[in-house]
Amino acid sequence: MKKILITSALPYANGSIHFGHIAGAYLPGDCYARFQRLKKNDVLYICGSDEYGIAITLSAELANRTPKEHVDIFHKKNLELFKKMDFSFDHYSRTTWEGHTKIVQEFFLDLCDNGYIEERTENHLYSEEEKKFLADRYVVGICPKCGFDKARGDECPKCGASYEAVDLKNPKSKLTNHPLVLKPSKHWYLRFDKFKERLKKWIETKKWKQNVLNYAFEYIKDLKPRAITRDLYWGVPLPIESAKDKVFYVWFDAPIGYISATKEWAEKNNKKEAWKDYWFDKETKLVQFIGKDNIPFHTVFFPAMLMGQNKPYILPDQIPANEFLLLEGRQFSKSDNWYIDLEDFFSKYSVDQIRFYLAANAPENSDSEFSWKDFQVKCNAQLLAKLGNFINRSLVFTKNYLNSKTGELKNLKEEDKKFLFEIDSLVQKIEEAYENFHVRKASQIIMQLADLGNCYFDKKKPWELKKDKKRFEEMSLTITLCLECCKSLALITYPIIPYASKEIWKMLGYKNKILNEGWEKIKNTHIPSNQKILDPKILFRKIEDKEIEEEVKNLYGNFEKIKKKIEIADFEKLDLRVGEIIEVENIKKSKNLIKLKVDLGFEKRTIVANIAKYYGKNLIGKKVIVLINLKPIKIMGIESQGMVLAGDKEGKVEIPFINTLPLGSNIR
Q: Half-sphere exposure of residue 659, counting CA atoms within 13 Å on the CB side?
């Protein structure tokens, strides 16, 4: 019996999870855990909420609640969604558990003792108005790489560049929009550079997916000391008297959450020291399921932190990171209304339908996508028409012509032996698929076995055999062999669609739970003769066209309809130029309008714009797109000599800015 510790990435308690998250780190982890339990291995499956960090304090402040109130909301929501997905975590923890703080501080002190921590006093961004240092997510400014003017303090959402907040040009407070100054502040750095060679040798021994290895090797090329502390009030405090206003950076404390979650599991089960049986036992296989955006933290940062401990922590054995799941070709985005409401989804469709679909479309080696029409096809043409149909016809025939009892597996012909051999072969193949984290391939093999059963049923034609009393034994054998195939389907579907698996198992007349019997016993034992079969029930419902049409309409309905088509000549009539806003003036008696002075390079224009709720003096110096051959019109007594281009959706207005083109440039 193997000892296997399984973790799925701790979801950040700053919002609700979506199917993209589920397909990447959670469904694959749950399938693997269920499979290994069937194999009778010692499995512990751990997860929990990641609840500290700057993004949470910022969101909480904007929502006018405390960080604890904020994370409580999303911890509860995400846990409820995980339960609806039928995930089998042995324990779901949270990093605000008091025991987590103690372990994080112990990690830090061990790293200090072993010479991997250094103190540095450097300039950091300070808000004179708020009287405090501002961590990266509280800062906005101009990207030092591409010039994007809404870059965050840690990375640019436009070009993807990472940098320190002090590298931003014109840094401002995200909350007050006031400029920031530099002041010295002490922080603690982890000397990752000291682990470079040790990490490289360790990674070279790993048989990970190629994309994971590529990320890991690329990241260790330029390992540098990295700050692990922040000027923040929400987080794990440093165990140092002189650092009362400092907390650990969330990326440092979050992976330690796997350990604290295991410890909390042990305490809740009255086995206080049992967590060490997993984290200190060199025979334990640690498997960590993540999305590709978490690869550096799990292949480089966390292993280095473990290497720097005085305690004998194990290192990850496998890190099966997945790519991204898109929604109809685009990334899931709640802010852009491009998402699926999970509460609404589960009120209409079954958990097995979505588990199967996400497994069949798992983004294992490249990005994949959720498509409503493809969801319908896979549910109807595969789950219902293949798997559900085969189970139902086998059980109905047993009820109607075998008095709801299995027959004997005797006097097998060559075609019957071949059928059993092919069943065994597919079971062996799916065992290898599950063992190697290939849930997509596993879903395909499930359908191959259902196809095999349907083909055998059709070829043997039991509906013809039942007409001849002399061929009753042959009919009985045919149906019993189909029930044998159903038994194998109950076994191999358990990791992906556990509800259907348990229902099939129950309808076949088994009293013990499928998990209690285990993979090897079920695989190597034929269905007993004269076993009472329960009445068949429908496992999957058909998804109608009108349902999917409504879902697609709801998804795309957030967008305005395309206007009437125009000729290219009509578009060419528009004269769009680059202009720089040099003056901004409020208009008396108007809350919505502002007066702009725009320099086009060859002349200056006055433009009245309906953007006062969204923009003000911060537009000065910005280059924008201006429609300059629009006939002048008087607005609030001011002649407006053009139009500044802006996008709007549901009350949100955003102006696209130009970074490098000179004034007066044509926009085509």
A: 11
Beta strand pairing call for 132-133 and 139-142: unpaired
Burial class for 181, CB neighbours closer than 10 Å (0-12, 13-18, 19+): exposed
CA 183 to chain CA centroid, nearest Å: 38
Give bridge partners of residue 401 from the DSSP assignment.
Answer: none
Q: Which two tokens stand for residue 228?
A: 């692990």
Instruction: Judge whether 398 and 406 are in contact, CB under 8 Å.
Output: yes
Q: What does the longest C-alpha to C-alpha distance in the chain come to? A: 101
What are the tens digits of pLDDT across the range 197-253? 999 999 999 999 999 999 999 999 989 999 999 988 999 999 998 888 899 999 999
**pLDDT more than 70, % of the chain:** 99
Q: Which tokens sit at 324?
A: 């991204």
Determine the pLDDT at residue 647. Answer: 84
Residue 651 has a pLDDT of: 62
The phi, psi pair for 607, rounded to 5°, reads: -135, 135
Mean local confidence (pLDDT), 4-8: 99
Is residue 336's pLDDT more than 80? no
Report the DSSP beta bridge partners of residue 626.
577, 644
Q: Which two tokens stand for residue 79?
A: 């846990």
Would strands 42-49 and 3-8 be described as parallel, antiparallel, or unpaired? Answer: parallel
pLDDT in tens, 264-292: 999 999 999 999 999 999 999 999 999 99
**Which CATH class, in words, describes the domain spanning 116-248?**
mainly beta
- The pairing of beta strand 181-190 with beta strand 139-142: unpaired
Report the SS3 class of residue 395: helix
Do the Cβ atoms of 208 and 318 come closer than 8 Å? Answer: yes
Out of 3.40.50.620, 1.10.10.10, 3.40.640.10, 2.60.40.10, which CATH number does the structure's domain 3-105+251-322 have?
Answer: 3.40.50.620
CATH number (2.40.50.140, 2.40.160.20, 3.40.50.2300, 3.40.50.1000) of 568-658 reads 2.40.50.140
Whole-Å CA distances, 284 to 3, 44, 277, 495: 5, 10, 8, 22
Tell me the pTM: 0.84
Judge residue 275's burial from the number of C-beta atoms within 10 Å of its C-beta, 0-12 exposed, 13-18 middle, 19 or more buried: buried
The CATH class for the domain spanning 352-524 reads mainly alpha
Mean confidence (pLDDT) of the chain: 93
Structure tokens at 240: 């140092």
Residue 650: per-residue pLDDT: 59
